[in-house]
Amino acid sequence: MGVKSFVEGGIASVIAGCSTHPLDLIKVRLQLHGETPSTTTVTLLRPALAFPNSSPAAFLAETTSSVPKVGPISLGINIVKSEGAAALFSGVSATLLRQTLYSTTRMGLYEVLKNKWTDPESGKLNLSRKIGAGLVAGGIGAAVGNPADVAMVRMQADGRLPLAQRRNYAGVGDAIRSMVKGEGVTSLWRGSALTINRAMIVTAAQLASYDQFKEGILENGLMKDGLGTHVVASFAAGFVASVASNPVDVIKTRVMNMKVGAYDGAWDCAVKTVRAEGAMALYKGFVPTVCRQGPFTVVLFVTLEQVRKLLRDF
Prior knowledge:
Solcar repeats lie at residues 4-116, 125-216, 225-310. With 314 residues, the protein is mostly helical. Helix content is 69%, strand content 0%. Helix 8 packs antiparallel against helix 9.
């Protein structure tokens, strides 16, 4: 059962990740929208949460007024016009590797922990233990998959940079080799604390809430166990995961994509982002996050349920 749960989770994750990759790319571009060239230089700022003599609201209004707003649809159209339709799949090789490492680990480990912690008498697992299993599985999976995650973010974001500043990685292997050669091995785990935190939140929210929604639907007789139940429960789980993880995801994306010296860690990135763009900048890309998490989670769990049926006798 242990090995099979990793195989099932890996197959479902790769299919879901690759099929929703364009939505993830648009989400990353939106999260980076608003960063200015000045973020690539080292500057001395006031201590965290210190504002000028004017009110914080006035300061934020002043600094955010010059950032043009852009929506996911218009951004997607602009990417296709300026970079070609193939640009929507920039970094898909890194997504494939990331899902193989990160999601296979978290999905398989979650099932192993869930089976281990289930009450043998009632055959049920309470919500707190489901969340605990998700936190552990997500954290370990993120640590394993962080190099692919860094490569994926950079490859997705490359097209927004001026031609002279683009990294132009040939693929995920080239990206990892270039990072190790130019920035050291530790660059592969840049933003790993954020990645782990985000993965713990996403996995706990996504997997635990899916199980909880599915159980609630079946126990209350709202629907039968089938495709309809899987779609409803998985879409609800995707929305929960989006709300919980978006702020961490924005900071993670910016730290992973930064030039050396742009931010002095995650907290510095968060403070600079809020100062320059307002608190709601932490929810940049929320619409495409939901639009991506919804389909991703639906494809993930619907595929997972079907793969489980196919491998039931193995």
